[in-house]
Amino acid sequence: MSSGTATRWLLAVASTTLWGYFVSVVFQGRRIAGISVTAVVVYALVAVGGAMLWVLAGRLSDSRRRDVLASCVSLLFGFLVIDTAYSVRTNLQLNRRAAEADERVEDAHVWHQEIFPRSYYPSDRAFTLYKPNVRVEGTMYGEFYQRRMLESPTLVQHVLRLRRLVYTIDGNGLRNRTDIHQSKQWALGDSYAMGYSTTEGLTWTDRLGELTGQSIYNLGVSGTSPGVQVQMLDYLLRKGTDGARPDRLLWMVFEGNDLENSYAGRRALPPSSAGFRAAVDGTLIGDLLSLPSTIRTRSIIGRALEGEIQFARGAVAAGDSYQIDGVPLVTPIYRSDRFGYCMFNPVHIDVTTKGQDYVLSHPNRPRLDESFERMKSLSKEFGFRVTVMVAPSASRVHGRDFPQMPQPTAEPYFIRYVEDLAKRSGFETVDLLGPLSADTSGEMLYYCDDHHWNERGNDVVAHVLAGRP
């Protein structure tokens, strides 16, 4: 075999492999022009593409083939390194969580996630609800708590705070004590709407209901993006509430991670256990049929397309802020002359230090825009008005009082972007950053062992909203 023919074969194999990677990552499992792209379709596309690439390779000069071959191999190697590195990072995080689970077994204190209501998928969409008709309660520290923190006198005296928490989940799988038909105002959002870490009766939705005499029905679900929230609202309006409708929707977006959370349209369903796939499971044929799906789910591009990757661009540098009294910390701690010691979520710190380009160029930004378009359609279809507010991060509100912490940008770019997006959608907006930043009570508005609003913060937000028409 001549060197030219060998180069042609190598180029055909490398370019076909690269084409197969691209098809698996971008198209596998999706519907295109009404056709479901299964593993068989992927292999057919790879075969056709491989044949075309073989023909194209024959039309190139030998030197040009070597150049293209080098590019293909470099790309394949680069994807392999990046995908492997991200998977290793994910595995290390899972191992760390497993170590925390072991630590909990030896800890007499209840950890927040041990009593937090469990979630479930009511459909094949990506949103979840809490398992209905459940009431859980316990006394615990905030979400930053780990057992070794009790070895630090500073943390015990100034940061950690035991508090009684009660979560009541209604028949719709949401945190409420009143029937949905008794409320014409609904609150939608993530953990800031749900009232995470604050006991019932003291959340901003509960306090707002007391101040206005009109109960607020809470649709908040922790860890969700605006895109997933719109999915859930659509489901509840059409299927889950026996005809209940709001007059007004209070939509709370969170600055800290609402660009980072998943905007996936559907959840990943397990493969069917019936038919040919079940028969060949565990065989070489079964492994080959699973290969395109495996490539998609494990590649960094596939995860990005599904909105699964958190693009925390940069990080808060580890240093003295990650230890105190000789105790190593996962969450950094800073000291303020005004408030004393407090811990802050490092991802949220990083987000608040990013410039405008972070928002405009973020891969989930178009999905955020689309979520507002879908909300606009829902509001017109079901006849409710929408009020949008952005919950600012603790580092945004209190950063100026903790000068050792990386400081937030002077302009809150994400908050302003969402407010502008809301206005363009015809929604009302409420500024929360101004009143929270201007609070003169001398108290922190966020828990120091948790990144959410404390009772005082919830009360300030309720009074701001109560002053609106």
Topology:
Layout: H1 3-26, E1 31-32, E2 35-36, H2 39-58, H3 62-105, H4 112-115, E3 119-120, E4 129-130, E5 134-140, H5 153-158, E6 163-169, E7 185-189, H6 191-194, H7 204-212, E8 216-218, H8 226-240, E9 248-254, H9 276-279, H10 284-298, H11 300-305, E10 323-324, E11 327-328, E12 333-336, E13 340-343, H12 346-352, H13 356-360, H14 365-382, E14 385-391, H15 394-398, H16 413-424, E15 428-430, H17 433-437, H18 455-466
Parallel strand pairs: 7-8, 7-9, 9-14, 14-15
Antiparallel strand pairs: 1-2, 3-4, 5-6, 10-11, 12-13
Helix pairs in contact: 1-2, 1-3, 1-10, 7-18, 8-14
Describe the protein:
The chain is α/β, with parallel strands linked by helices and 469 residues long. It folds into two domains: 148 residues, no CATH class; 308 residues, Rossmann fold. The chain has 18 helices and 15 strands. The strands form six sheets. A five-stranded parallel sheet has the order 8-7-9-14-15, with helices on both faces. A hairpin with an 8-residue loop joins strand 3 and strand 4. It is globular. The protein starts with a helix and ends with a helix. About 2% of the residues have low confidence.
